[in-house]
């Protein structure tokens, strides 16, 4: 029977590929149980491909290509973001053809992409012609076999998702430990197992576990306006070897508090920081949903910042000058409790710096929302101008990625200065923070221990005091902001001083 030799070759080749990719930094585990799990996952991948063709050598070769593809993508992803491929990444794949400029990829119409794809299709078609299928003889037996194999794989997945097998999987993988599990069990096994564990546990991590704010101080004055701005890829440019940014001096001179913000990822995964700030939930509370929190809750968080603000009588607005479907932001933000969404369609005619609406224009729109409010207002905004990748052709005459980044971050700083000046005379809070460090050649994983920069400005306060440096995690910042909209007494300084725009 040709299936067994093809399986042995596929197992051996896949093991060699992953051992080579791991190298000395992430050596694979040679324990019997770990190898058995690794081989079982590879066999399942081969059976998956076999179900489409009933050609064992084609299925075996497809399994080898799968192992090579997972290893290659994981290797590239580690170099930019610092972690291997994970199951939740596959949920983001539909975004790539819709928003190719946001990724280091090319459209399928590019010969460098379309050519290999056409060659692969032609190769599979030729292989179908050269290798005969090993289906049972007779149409009834063949039809039964064609149905039985995918149904068997589906039944196995169902059994692993619930019941005794699910319990054994939970004991094997009680919590995420991505790099260690990839080293132990391989990419395919880890991706499959994490997906099953996520499905089994996504309803278990209850948002109610988040600490609730303290009771408001009786008679404590409440902010008229709370503005929270998530700054795309923002860190102090001096940390990257760039020039001083006047806004950073404003942080140190005029903010109530400022400092480094520990965020959940490097170079990408905006939604992780966004979720942490909007909910106050730490990574440990998310279980296997930590890789993409929106997959688990979709924004349905009863203790979110927007819901807390709504309960306190605030209007709630989300302002983001990009597509409504990216990260499903429109749906997610509605679920979080934002009643008004101001997104790309409302920025028609706004100045663009490179591919995206400029940060200064976004700041002007935020201030317009503040001026047009009917009552207390919470604005949560996400900038877009400095979104990577920073590729040649993005800015006229500037092709160096770091130079492009510094050009954009100067506009981010001007926007912050504008917001500080525009909120003068109000009792207000302004919070600005970076979602993650930029994925630049000069800013690789390990930079700054995944810490960005943040600042909180408080206006119209009656308590003076010098700015305080307080380093925080993103979820701790979220809990502090929940206290702010709930009217909980928080340390404030005298109104921030307006400064001329640099």
Automatic annotation (TrEMBL):
- For whether the record's keyword set contains Transmembrane, the answer is yes
Q: How does it sit in the membrane?
A: Multi-pass membrane protein
Q: Which Pfam families match?
A: Sulfatase
Can you list the GO cellular component terms from the UniProt entry? plasma membrane
Ranges for domain Sulfatase N-terminal: 226-441
Enumerate the transmembrane spans: 35-52, 113-130, 139-161
Task: List the subcellular locations.
Answer: Cell membrane
Keyword vocabulary terms for this entry: Cell membrane, Membrane, Transmembrane, Transmembrane helix
What Gene3D superfamilies is this protein classified in?
A: Alkaline Phosphatase, subunit A
Q: What is this protein called?
A: LTA synthase family protein
Q: Which organism is it from?
A: Methylobacterium planeticum
